[in-house]
Each structure stands twice: as structure tokens, then as C-alpha cells.
Amino acid sequence: MRQVSFGTRWTGLRAGAFALTLAATGLWFCNLRAQSPGDPRPPMTKTEQVKDNYHGVEVIDPYRWLEDQQSPATRAWIDAQNKYTQSLFEAWPEREQLKRRVAELLKIDSIDVPTERNGRLFFLKRAAEQDQGVLYLRKSRGGADEVLVDPIPMSTDHTVSVLLDAVSDDGALIAYGLRQGGEDETTVHLLDVDKHTELPDILPKANYFDIAIKPDKSGLYYSRGGNAPRVFYHALGTDPAKDQIIFGEGYGPDKIIVADLSEDGRYLIIHVEHGAAADQTEIYLQDLQAHGPIKPIVNDVAARFFGQVGGDTLFVQTNWKAPKNRILAIDLKNPARENWKEVVPESSAVIDSLALANGEMVVIYNENASSLIRVFDTDGKHRRDVPLPAIGTVAGFNSRWAGDQAFYGYTSYHIPFLIQQYSVGLGAQELWAQVKVPIHIEKIEVKQVWYTSKDGTRVPMFLLSQKGMKLDGARPTLLTGYGGFNSIESPYFSPLAALWVENGGVFANANLRGGGEFGEEWHRAGMMGKKQNVFDDFLSAADWLIRNRYTHPSQLAIKGIYKIAGTSGLG
User: Fold this and answer.
1) Fewest Cβ atoms closer than 10 Å to its Cβ: which of 9, 183, 403, 527?
2) What pLDDT is stored for residue 26 in this prediction?
3) Per residue in 369-395, is it b (16+ CB within 10 Å) or e — as a string?
4) What is the Cα 211 distance to its own chain's centre?
């Protein structure tokens, strides 16, 4: 099913590329301006004494006039700032050098975590010179990569992209989506893998949330969003316009409905998410083998529930009575709530996601904003931890309840995206793929520090810098953070951040309240009436960097609402 992480969602991670390009530009400007003290100052920004009174507290907003982006005054201010910036660019001798280096670092290969079925591996891969990823098949260990779907010839401007939606249990049939530009909607196609032929069945353009192919390949279940989210069943060889509605009557556009099948095809599992944050989730289940009705597992609790079937058990990740999440086991033959069993209790680390593999549970945790992986048996007995290279982030864990081989992605600020192949039964792993980046990673170090915010709360922050860097208080430093929407700011590799550090800068990412680094309490501590905590945390991070002689106010730049580019995949 579509796993909705309690922490960082994996979409949109390339959004910060332009911001970091500007940051790298700023590093060169620091050097340039040190040599050119006579450069003109930037245009002045006027202030107006606009005052508001909120519950007896006077708030002065001197820049209120800039909120009207279309006013003549604001447009004139923007034009003046742009003109000033362009004048510095044009006079800057290292500009072309930086452009070449940035292009070199961004023009790299990328690859997605593979999906394994019947010994076959399906994955997206994009070569550095390609505009879009290509869907590949590798039939055996060490075998050649076969092209299944290449979207590049499908449009002259290379704006059509492909995504893998579903693979049949035997690896002989796939469903894949084609997307035009950045649209949410896709058209869904079916491909006979062995014959390399398209089936006539094409699901029309829509926003699809999940697709599940029946084990016998006679049909598939899918969920579709929009004003009327619904679950449908499509029998292969029939007209998709006549597909049967299975579930969803009465639900509106504020709900997201996701449907999936258990590996053996016996159970249909339906999740109803209340809004994008899924602060409340309903779960319904149908025993297809018994031709039973769709029955609710939970639909009356204001909490998140995400379930996966292993055998006749529904393993559920939830924050119900556990702000940092726990795992419940529900016997599908006796699913009454009084029979639910807690198998992995809440701990000091936040449970980020759950995978089932080799008849066991693989739990991905977020501990102090960094990933760790633990394997448990179905009774909750801890079997082992999966070794990870350093402080970093696990980006996806693809496995099967009935299969031993799993694949997961991993990255850190100083480690380009890599994919490990992991034997769950043996507890052994080996490198399957790694993105190659032309940069001296060995000269860069990552560490985590803790500082005290205004109200005494301890807040962690990641620092990326050169090894052995002298703390002289003069390092150009870029400080960023997020602090919202339960997002976890864990370490991701960015070639541009590494370039910034390679040239003497410091990159700092503070784990502000409002995110999901420490569970629901941390999230709510930065929401609504407590939003000021987010800004206090950010200001305290800047103070810490200055007090500890990483930088000086004149050398400190800040960037908000920021996602690091270049993690993985084919964005």
C-alpha cells in the first residue's frame, strides 16, 4: 500500500536545489566582498510604523507594505533588489566557474529502491544525461538490466515520466503510470513483462493512490482520488468505464482512500485518511476468499492507523495512546478491539514506518532525527538491529512477508544515496547500488549538537563542515530548519550542500519544534498558539552557532521552508 509516513514524506525533496545554488553563490560572494570593500550597499528598505494590538500586546510590523506583492511600491523594491544583485553577478569573476561546478554536481545518475517479485527486480533508473527515469527489469542476480518502459521518446520536450504502480506476485505483469509534466494525474497501463506487450486495458487519467494486482492476474483493485474518492475493481479485458465501485460512497474530497491486497490475495485492506496529515484513519477489511462483506476494523478513533497483513494478522502502526507510535497485532479471524495485542510498545524513539519481511516485523525508527532499523518476531521479541553506516536516513524499505530479500535506501549529509540488499533471515546485507558524485566526501564530517531554546527546551541540530575546521567565528554559515506539519528533518545528501562545505562554509539544520522528530508532542509544541516556539528554536540555533565560534552575524545566512535536494530517485 501507499505508506504514509508519520514523519517526512518522500516527495518534493529536490525543491531546495535553487536555494542551495544561491547559498553556494553567497559563499563566493563572501570571498569577493572581502576583497571589494567599496562595493555599493544594497537598496534601502523603507519602514512604516504599522501597529496592531493583540490581546493587550502591541505588535509593530514595519514591513507590512511588502505583503502586497502587486503594489507599485513592492514591485519597485523587487526591481531595485534584482538590479543590485545582477550588478554583483556581472562583476563577479568566479561566476562561470561556479556554474560549471554546479552543473557537474547536479548531472549525476539516480536510482530508486527496487521492488522484488519472484526473484525479479523492478526499478526506475535515470542516467545523468537523461531527463526522465526509465523503468527496468533485472531477472536475476548480476543479470543485465532490461528496459520495460522508456518515457523519453513519448514527448519531444521529455516531460512525460513513468512510475511503477504495481507488480503481480509472479513478476509477469506490471501496472505503470504515465504522467505529463508535474500533474498529479496519471494514466495507468498494463504490461506483459515476458512478451513486452501492452494489454488493451488503460485506466483513464486520474489521481490514483494505489493499485493492487490479484495473484491470478484476473483483475486489479485501485483507489482514485478527487471530489468523490472511491475504490474500484477492474476485471482484465473489460471496459474500465464500467469498473465496479467497491467502497467509498459518501466520502468527499477531504478524504484519501487507499486500497491494497494481502500477498496471498485473500484480504482487501482499505484505509480512509482524514486529510493529508491523516490525523484520523479508518481501516476496513474484506475477506475475499470467504466472499465476505467489507467490515470496519477501526473507524471511530481520532488517531492514525496504518495496517499491513502478514498471514492472518493485521500489523498496525498507530499513535493511538502512543504519541511516538507503537505496533499492534490484530487477529483477522477475531478482530474485536478487546483482542488487539500490542507487540512493539512505544519507546523513546519515534516509529517512522513498518515493513513485513520473512514472517517478521521490520520497524524503522527515528531516534534524535536519525534512522535506525530493528527486526522483531511477530510476538514483539527483538531479534536484531540492522547496521547503518552513520547518522543518516533510511529512505524506503521494500520487502515481502513471504520473502527473505529486502532492499532499502540510505543517505546522509555526507553519504550519497545508496541501496542495500538485506537478507532478513540471515541478518546479512551488501551494497546493491550507489549514486556516484564527483566530490571529496571523505573531507566532510557530520555531527549532531544540542542547544537550549528560550524556554529551556533542548533542541538538536545537524552540522555539516570540513573535517578539522578551525572555529574562528568567521565561517560563512547557512542555517535552515522547518518546524511544521510533523515533518522530520533527518540527514539527506545534497551535492550543493557538500560543495558549500567543500569551499569552507558550514551548513546547519535545526530540528525545530512543530516537526515530527520526537513524536506528536514535539509536533504540537510548534503548532497554532505555540508557533512562537518554532521561531525561538531557530533564533536560539543562530545564537549557538555564534557563541560557539562557528560564524559571526555578518557571515550567517538563513533559509526557511527548505528541503535538501538530490536525495534519491528521479525527481
Assistant:
1) 183
2) 52
3) bbbbbbbbebebeeeeebebeebbbbb
4) 20
